[in-house]
Amino acid sequence: MKKLIGLIVSLSLLTGILAGCAGTPANNSVTSQVAGEADTEEMVWPRTINDALGKQITLKEKPKRIAILDFGFMETMFALETPLIASTFAERTLKGFGTLQSYAANTQIEELGEAKAPNLEKLVALKPDLILYTAEPEHLDMKLYAQASQIAPVVTFNSPDWKKQLGEFANCLGEEKKAEAYIAEIESLIAESRGKLSGSNAKTVALLFESTGNKGSFFLSGSAENPVFFNKESGLGLTPPDGWPEKTQAVSLEGLAAMNPDYIFLLGAVESKANGYTQRYLTEKTQASSVWQSLTAVKNGHVYHLDAAVRAKGPLSIKLGIESIVKSMTE
Questions:
Q1: pTM of the model
Q2: pLDDT for position 27
């Protein structure tokens, strides 16, 4: 620890990059302030970021060495075509997420280890000029935040709306045009896909994944937390079964059987390195269960797999999820 502190202090003295102090929370949004340039299409540097913790961080120039302490942000960085130098769970995410596997061979992202205990000594040695972190209460570690802030400016994000969060990243990284283009592409895909699925509105659809700690139970992906798939106006307009929760909720296999959806989409989970970062969807025990076999979706062959990346709700996985659902329900 003394070695780590010494490295942090040394780096802090060398960088001279100033991070602002805490202010009034900004409704969990990231905005930027650039004197005289706030409304221009491409804002100049330096710029001040108001992040999800209500802190103001001034960035002198466009960041070039960026590290993330939330592997779920990796998709956003690729969507904005912004290189990364390091990430937690870097290898597992690159090789495990179907959305990122095509990048893995030509991308070098240093491994920082587990999200709860990243390798800060390695992060210091990498000399990032910006660190991105989550402000989600269930994942935010203020001790880790304080330690990371001694290494480089830290900007936090916490927006449930993927478009808003992509825009916030773009404001921070100076990639507004790329964000606008990507959002327009996905909105067009959603509108087109909603039309293709209009003939299936009477069918009920479930998105869920099996609990790793309690076989035979599931986590249901809440309708309000997944508007891209369930919202009738701005999403695909999928119809959840009666009793489907608005927020993620655990349910037993028997509880799922009571809902008895017409279509089931199983979200994957990435296995360990020893298992080649493959994805698992359903245990053999559950699959062989008479209760599972009695489900309408199972009997009609309407059980499909969605890549584990879709659980992270990143911009690339949203596109993959939409395309996978449409293909499964229309072909």
A1: 0.84
A2: 41
